[in-house]
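Hello support,

Our group uses your service weekly, and this is the first time we've seen a run hang past the timeout. The protein is O-methyltransferase/MSMEI_4947. I'm not sure whether the cause is the sequence or the server load. Input pasted verbatim:
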Amino acid sequence: MDRTSYTNLAKSWEYVEDHAFSRQSTDLNAIRTHAEEAGIPQGSAAQAELLRMLVHMVNATSVIAVGTGSVVETLQLVNGLDNSGQLTAVDSSSQGIALIRTLFNRLSDETQTTLRAVNAPVDVFLPRLNAENYDLIVVAGDAENYVASFEQAPRLLKKHGVIVFTDILAFDSATSAGGVLNPANRDAKSIAMRGLLETVESDERFVTALTPTGTGLLVAVKR
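Update from on-call engineer: The timeout came from a worker crash unrelated to the input. Re-ran successfully.
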C-alpha cells in the first residue's frame, strides 16, 4: 500500500467510528459518559455495535462477557439478545463489576434477558460453568483474562459458537507505545496478545479472522 491508501484507511476508520457513535441511543451515551466520569474509559462505538450484530448473527441465547470495563460493549451485548436469553458478566475488578451490577439492576425491570454479574477471577469462575452451553464469549480487560478464557472456550462453546477477543492490538494499555503494531514494544499486554494470536490461529478446533475494528478484534468460531 502507498501512503494515500494508508491515509484513506485511517480516514475510513474515523468515519465509521463517528457514524457508529452518532447512532448510539441517548441512554447509551449517558452510560458512556457516566462510566468515563467514574474513571473507566470506554472503547470504540463501532466495535460495540459489531458485537451487538454478532449476537444476532450467531442467533445467540447465552453470552459470556469477560472483563466488563467497557460498559457500553456489555450493554450492546444485552441489546443484541433482544429481550431474551442470558448474559453473564464476569470481572475480578470490584469497580468494573459494581458499575455493571448498577446497570443490570436498572435494566432488570426493562428486559426479560437474564442478567448476572459475577465478581471472580476468570480462571476460577469459567471452569465451574456447564460445557457446550454458550453461543458467544467476548473477552476484554487484563491480559490474564484472554488466556484463561481461551483455555475454557472449546469446552464451554456450542458447535459453531464464537469467542471474540477485543483490543487484540493492545492499544488500551497506558504503556502500549503502539501496542502489537510496534515490534519493539515489549509491554506485558502486547507480548500476551502476540502469543494469543499465534495460539488461537494455530488451533485447528477454530476458524479465525483478525479485524482492525475498534482496537482490533480476533474472532474464532468453533468448528
